[in-house]
Amino acid sequence: MRRYCIRPATPDDLGAARAVMLDTVYRDFGTGYVPHWHADIIDLAGAYLTPARHVLLVAVDESGSAGTGKGEGTGTGTGVGTVVATAALDSRGPAHPPNPRWLADRYPSGETAQLRRVYVRQDHRRHGLARALVRRLLEFAAADGGYRAVYLHTDPAVAGAEPFWRSLGKAVCDEREEPGGGQGIVHFEIPMT
Asked: Are 41 and 22 in contact (CB under 8 A)?
């Protein structure tokens, strides 16, 4: 039976967390690393560890049965287990452009907790890790006291992503329904409690 520990990332976790994220953008998204979209993945400390209102969580498989995905690190901050999932939160709302102006106005930076990089290695899915990670991010946002909304966007072409987020929140903009289709992504608001 697998045992997972979910906790804030430490500097020792960053290499393994970055590997989970990069594997996801290459394997699941099919885009590969795009600097404009993924710069935070390269500077995880600057994006999530240093700012007080940001956080990066990791899920560590402590059962000794972790997958060995290509490029996977084993840093966990404790020397035991393998990072198999990530989830992050920052205080940046959606930018305009490329997002619709009304969406950027509805979710302004500083007042919006944006969920990012909720990624689980394929062989660790269906164990409740994503849901548990999101729950911890929502607790972090509520404890901060300065966030008035929780926002995220997802690519509906990624298997399972849209149904997962619909189970947790409300779609506020489906760009596939907009004139011209926008970026084709779906924007969600998640209740903080």
From this structure: yes
Residue-wise pLDDT for 92-112, tens only, equals: 999 999 898 999 999 999 999
pTM recorded for the entire structure: 0.90
Q: Please write down the HEC assignment for all residues of 71-128.
A: CCCCCCCCCCCEEEEEEEEECCCCCCCCCCHHHHHHCCCCCEEEEEEEEECHHHCCCC
Closest CA to 154 of 126, 119, 128, 124: 119
* CA-angle at 49, arms to 44 and 55, nearest 5°: 95
Tokens representing residue 55 in the block: 């956080």
What whole-number distance in Å separates Cα of residue 107 and Cα of residue 94?
7
Query: CB atoms < 10 A from the CB of 30, how many?
Result: 10
pLDDT band at 63 (very low <50, low <70, confident <90, very high): confident
